[in-house]
Amino acid sequence: MTVIAxxxxxRPSLLVGELIEPRVxxxxxxxxxxxxxxxxxxxxLRGTLAHAPAPVSDRPDDPRLVDRFGRVATDLRVSxxxxxxxxxxxxxxxxxxxxxxxxxxLTDDEIVRLVRIGVGQLGITVIRFTGGEPTxxxxxxxxxxxxxxxxxxxxxxxxxxxxxxxxxxxxxAAAGVDRLNVSxxxxxxxxxxxxxxxxxxxxxLDGMAAARAAGLTPVKVNAVLLRGVNDDEAVPLLRYCLGAxxxxxxxxxxxxxxxxxxxxxxxxxxxxxxxxxxxxxxxxPDPAERGGAPAERWLVDGGPETVGVIASVTRPxxxxxxxxxxxxxGQLRTCLFARGETDLRALLRGxxxxxxxxxxxxxAMWVKAAGHxxxxxxxxxxxxxxxxxxx
Length: 391
Prior knowledge:
By secondary structure, the protein is an alpha/beta fold. It has a domain at 72-318: TIM Barrel. The protein is built from ten helices and 19 strands. The strands form four sheets. The chain has a twelve-stranded mixed β-sheet with strand order 14-15-16-13-12-11-10-9-8-17-18-19. Strands 1-4-3 form a three-stranded mixed β-sheet, with no helix packed on it. Helix 1 packs parallel to helix 2 and helix 3 (165-175) packs parallel to helix 5. It is globular. The model is unreliable at 1-54 (pLDDT under 50).
């Protein structure tokens, strides 16, 4: 089995030297025997790094998912499928993508086993099921129920486009989902159809209402503003969410589209979002501790209602990241923007023990990069799009 190891990326204020060629290196402490580690040949560092990471071999004897920069991963994102019933313009082409063959996806038992290892041996406390669109997986409720039965019980959340929620919300709540996030970029039907290439806005709104009625609160709403498309809806979206009792979070568009067409100068930034909101609302920083949460939050007109902005590009929060990720086909990713993956599916299907899988997982997270590197000259968008990685 081959594990991809990455050189740590650095903040743009540091100098980047010459590229190095890929090479095979010795596995770090924490990798099982027989694991090959491949260095991707990312930029070497030139100059002085103020907080240089310790060598890989110096990983402490810590059962948690610690890395060389002092971060501890406690939040596991699990993609259940790369399939989706929308075709959002900033995510995939109109014709869709070549979906992962079913036999390559993790089975229900494999998913639950990896989650059990994460919770029982690695200190994972939060599980978020994602996709693609996770409600398209027929066994979603059964998987949730099994994960909710683990001890210690993790917090369970779901990221969804909302289309299937009207008929599934009550069952998901009964199975053990604690809260969810719903994607909603516009309140205008024609715009929704333009962005998603589907006429399903009513289904999404009905699904959100069903989730609220089922007790899956607070229902969090994720919105991406696109220049020249829906960038005039910051205020209307917030007004709608405040009135309905939803918690709105704007997300900067990230370079994760299948078409690799993302352009930074076309992105609506966090600063622009806040400027537009402040034309209608008084915003003050939320005094509550942010921790590893991706959203910066503001009190709206003094609170208690809040609005959040996830500024992954212009205000990166990599230094506080507490996430580890599993793709639908069983690849471990240390970062949403990672260029390499660790094949846990091969370990599962090759007869590895829970302890061996946990060791490989620890070793992979130990060499997690310092940051996503979007602002670096040599940044390369991940090969996989968001739908295949999992949000």
